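[Q] Does anyone have a clean structure-token version of this?
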Amino acid sequence: MSEKLIPRGESAEFRVDTSQESKKLLEKLSEQAAETAVSAEQIQGLQDHVEQQAVSAKEFSTGEQEQQAAYVPGLHRDLKQSAYKRTLERTQNSLNGPEKALSKVIHAPVVETISTVTGNTVARPSGILGGSIFALIGTLLLTYFTRRYGFSYNYLIFVILFAGGFTAGLIVELFIHLIRKAR
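[A] Here you go.
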């Protein structure tokens, strides 16, 4: 075949090759099209087959199909984890060396699990508030009695008072939660 590439800027004139090869190719393609033509009988046969295999809308609800296809066990959790990992990697790549190393240590699976568990249980605001109030009042009273009666100040009492106040704060929070839930 004799195609001609027209460079930019030249006229858009082109010539169609009507050589003997093109004519033979065109004849061959038309013969193949005639051989593969579908008759009306074949079309009717295909329609009958489709009607036999088809399920009516009454037998199959679209809503059920969407619900079945929508729920894949574990897929949502996996998508969230992969999105979290991608975001973490992108963020860590923008950090400098020491910050990146610290971020990798902090976001290690073991450290994250421990941090999440302690954040949900140990660092309760009610416990910290209760512990600090108990420790403040208890330390003030202890300081007053040590000066008044002359015995020595024990620093361990601050820790004991804080732990007792923390426990009391958690218990108060639990009771408030139970009362609100009962209403």
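[Q] Thanks! Anything notable?
[A] The chain is about 75% helix and 0% strand.
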